[in-house]
């Protein structure tokens, strides 16, 4: 599988997830304006990386992908809510998201806060829904893992640290890595892990899914930081150099561009190692996905 | 059980819940400032009504209360997060909560948003934790019910409607009731329902728990609206008449004080009817609790 094949597979998988997402909030009695606001952000495109990782790991571990779909899709609801809240004026104050007005710009702040709250809560509703076709024990374990990864000791805590560190000098690489591992890494890691959990995998496999996810999470963050320096506005959906302007601590700002590239490749290698024993098309996809992360910035 | 006995039992139950809440967020890797902010609001007092309702219904249906505790406590995390977000400048813009500075006043807006997000997510972590001592099927069902009640078709949606209706003339009693049923009723209802669910109760009992919870939820809201007109500032923790000043639609503003009192009593009767078959001390508590709601405003 080459670079164009992985892109195609990623697109096809994203479309598959989107088919599910499109009706995922319907029939729940959501007031109209709130629903419009939630779907404005949820259906605004994106690679759907987290659901796809969950589905591919579930399949790799022997589970029918359709059974994992509600759970996988819930990860996109969580990712979307985090973007809406991060964009708020009191947080990163971003007017644009994926080239369109951010949620609070398109609607208003109150609606954006509630849209985020709603997406986060509906995510757990979707996860619970997965128990209709999977053993409840597996689903509860995976829900617990997602809550830990997305919560105050994970994604939410990472955003809190990011706010604390922004504009502050003297942040160490170690602090930066912990912050990113929580803010973006934890959800990517748990996407892989939960897929394996839903399939009922044994501990050694869960370990591999977790390590793979954590490693590509780091590689992905470094690549994003690099793109903010060397990318073009259309590709990244926001002005180039916006991290630097916002006083964000990034890999390039802390260790330079060359070392950032080296680190990204190191983590990709670590991710690929986790798949050594596997030779299915899903394993191939997950391997190529890891390579793709660094290829798009080199 | 008289008025003073119910007050005492309510206080003792609240203290029991607080004992659990006090350490519920520890050992989760939450950054210090964020944890301080979350606990500032979570441990600021309150009647702990939702956890107590869950515990009492669980016990009434034959479950050891300790097994339901993590789940019951999670409802207080959800309630607390909703208060923090509702107080934000973009929402109700309240500077005071329970006589103390609201979360965003004590910390800052970003921290308050994240503290709310963190509490909501950790709530689901606590719920999943309940599966350590209860069948996973029951826990998942109860989690699904809580997510639906707290989500965009429940509490979050109710707050969205409240924002939409505030300052608007011509809101009907029907619209007001739907809004309240979502905003405050749904979580109170599901507190009772989830307690019965965790105990593995049959459908007819779940129905009673749900009806009882919905009815006291309405009675409670009417009583709150009445207190905002006739209560004193110390008792309600915010200035008297603040609803009217904020242009809020309330029961007294829509149907008058006398009719509000009559409606409150009607819903209390409906709640008490659900307990007809029960004669345990928990049933007595739940009956007296319903009466207590209207007694405190008469």
TrEMBL record, chains A, B:
Cellular component GO terms held in the UniProt record: cytoplasm
Pfam families for this protein: polyprenyl_synt
PROSITE patterns: POLYPRENYL_SYNTHASE_1, POLYPRENYL_SYNTHASE_2
CDD domains tied to this protein: Trans_IPPS_HT
InterPro entries on file: Isoprenoid_synthase_dom_sf, Polyprenyl_synt, Polyprenyl_synt_CS, Prenyl_diphosphate_synthase
GO biological process, one term: terpenoid biosynthetic process
Swiss-Prot/TrEMBL keywords: Isoprene biosynthesis, Magnesium, Metal-binding, Transferase
A single MF term (Gene Ontology): prenyltransferase activity
Keyword Magnesium: yes
SUPFAM superfamilies: Terpenoid synthases (SSF48576)
Domain of life from the UniProt record: Bacteria
Cofactor: Mg(2+)
Signal peptide: none
Similarity comment text for this entry: Belongs to the FPP/GGPP synthase family.
Protein's UniProt name: Farnesyltranstransferase
Species this chain originates from: Desulfocurvibacter africanus subsp. africanus str. Walvis Bay
Lineage: Bacteria, Pseudomonadati, Thermodesulfobacteriota, Desulfovibrionia, Desulfovibrionales
């Amino acid at each position: 599988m080459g670079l164009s094949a992985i892109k195609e597979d990623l697109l096809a998988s994203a479309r598959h997830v989107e088919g599910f997402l499109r009706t995922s909030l319907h029939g729940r009695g959501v007031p109209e304006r709130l629903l419009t606001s939630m779907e404005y952000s949820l259906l605004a495109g994106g690679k759907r990386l987290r659901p796809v990782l969950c589905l591919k790991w579930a399949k790799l571990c022997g589970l029918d992908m359709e059974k994992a779909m509600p759970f996988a899709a819930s990860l996109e609801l969580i990712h979307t809510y985090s973007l809406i809240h991060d964009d708020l004026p009191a947080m990163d104050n971003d007017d644009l998201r994926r080239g369109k007005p951010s949620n609070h710009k398109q609607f208003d702040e109150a609606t954006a806060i509630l849209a985020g709250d709603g997406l986060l809560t509906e995510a757990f509703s979707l996860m619970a829904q997965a128990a209709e076709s999977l053993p409840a024990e597996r689903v509860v374990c995976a829900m617990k893992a997602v809550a830990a990864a997305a919560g105050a000791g994970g994604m939410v805590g990472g955003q809190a640290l990011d706010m604390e560190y922004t504009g502050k000098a003297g942040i160490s690489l170690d602090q930066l890595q912990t912050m990113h591992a929580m803010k973006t890494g934890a959800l990517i890691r748990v996407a892989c892990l939960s897929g394996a959990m839903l399939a009922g995998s044994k501990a050694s496999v869960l370990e591999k899914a977790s390590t793979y996810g954590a490693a590509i999470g780091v590689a992905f963050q470094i690549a994003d930081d690099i793109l903010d320096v060397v990318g073009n506005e259309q590709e990244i959906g926001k002005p180039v150099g916006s991290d630097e302007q916002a006083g964000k601590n990034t890999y390039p700002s802390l260790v330079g561009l060359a070392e950032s590239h080296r680190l990204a490749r190191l983590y990709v290698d670590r991710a690929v190692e986790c798949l050594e024993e596997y030779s299915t098309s899903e394993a191939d996809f997950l391997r190529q996905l890891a390579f793709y992360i660094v290829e798009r910035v080199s």
